[in-house]
Each structure stands twice: as structure tokens, then as C-alpha cells.
Amino acid sequence: MNDPSPPPRGEERTDVYGPEKRSAVMRRVKSTGTTPELAVRRLIWSLGGRYRLNRKDLPGKPDIVLAGRRLAIFVHGCFWHGHDCARGARVPKTNRDYWLSKVARNKARDAAAREALTDAKWRVEIIWECQVKDAPALAARAAGWLKAPPAISAGTGRRRS
Ligand SMILES: [Zn+2]
């Protein structure tokens, strides 16, 4: 998901790495982003939350889905999804426009997914990579989501009509 598409021609010479290499570098940076997701999963599990991962039938393929609670959770890398934090602002100096437009596209896609989920009566929570580092705050937040009993029977994600 979110593999960088090739940059437009003309930008290629400005990057010392070249776009291919740069993409590989950035992908590696991103793949470490699975660690925050793991941390969030472990936390939710320890609080008794049972979930499914990457529900492809839902807009934006939320990372963690608690269907019984109609709760969709995204764990977002600060750079890739354009968080307003120090890490999110760290755009590579070379091919800057390319990365900025890439992040802008991700943000637009995120916003659309969020809106579609909200319209379908899902609750959407975004956990930013940088927030995962503050374990007590995150645990308190997650405990809040799990406090209320499930609204519908778990697992189906179906709405009563
Ligand atoms: Zn951040």
C-alpha cells in the first residue's frame, strides 16, 4: 500500500539517490512504521479489544477494526500522512515537491476514507506514529474507546435495520 509511484520526468536528475533508490529508502523508513501498529494492536488486545486487521471492504482499509464497536483505527506514519509534528515536517530536501505532492495525495485519500466511514456510522480514530511513543496517554485513550459495551454483536459489522 502507498508505494511511491514514479516521479514525473524532469525531477529525476535533481535527486542524488535517483527516484528508485530514494523510494526504496523511504519504503524502508515506512516499513519500520509497522512497529507502532504492532504496539497499538498489543495495547488494544491487552485491554480486551478484539479486532480484525486491514478490512479491505472498508474505505481506506483501516489498520485495526473493532466491528462490534464500529470503531476503525488507522495508525499513521507522521511523514507519509502529513502529521503536523516535527517528524511529519521532515520532508527530504531533494525531490521535495514530489514528496510533498505524494503526502498531499495521501492526506486527501485519508480524508475521503474518513468521511466515507463516518457517513457509514463508523467511529474513526487516527493514531499517529509520534503518539505511540507516549504509552500512558495512548493507553488511556484506548481504554476510553473500549469502556462502553459493544453496540452490536461483534464480528459481523452489520447494522441493525
Ligand atoms: Zn506526528
Which key phrases capture this entry?
four-stranded mixed β-sheet; globular; 4 strands; alpha+beta; binds zinc ion
How would you summarize what this structure contains?
Helix content is 42%, strand content 11%.
Structural write-up:
With 161 residues, this protein is an alpha+beta fold. The chain has one domain: VSR Endonuclease (Endonuclease, Chain A). It is built from five helices and four strands. It has a four-stranded mixed β-sheet with strand order 1-2-3-4, sandwiched between helices. The longest helix has 24 residues. The two termini are 34 Å apart.
Indicate the topology:
Elements: H1 19-31, H2 34-46, E1 52-53, E2 64-66, E3 71-76, H3 96-119, E4 123-128, H4 129-132, H5 135-147
Parallel strand pairs: 3-4
Antiparallel strand pairs: 1-2, 2-3
Bound molecules: zinc ion (ZN).
Zinc ion (ZN) binds next to helix 4.
- Describe the strand arrangement of the main beta sheet, using strand numbers: 1-2-3-4
Unreliable stretches (pLDDT < 50, length at least 5) are 1-14
Give the % helix. 40-55%
Ligands: zinc ion
DSSP E strands, number: 4
Overall form: globular
As a percent range, the share of strand residues is 5-15%
Element string (H = helix, E = strand) = HHEEEHEHH
Describe the biggest sheet?
A: 4 strands, mixed
The CATH architecture name reads 3-Layer(aba) Sandwich
Count of all domains: 1
- Category from helices, strands and their pairing: alpha+beta
End-to-end C-alpha gap: 34 Å
Query: Could you name the CATH topology?
Result: Endonuclease, Chain A
CATH class: Alpha Beta
How much is the radius of gyration in Å?
18 Å
Average pLDDT metric: 81
Number of helices: 5
CATH superfamily: VSR Endonuclease
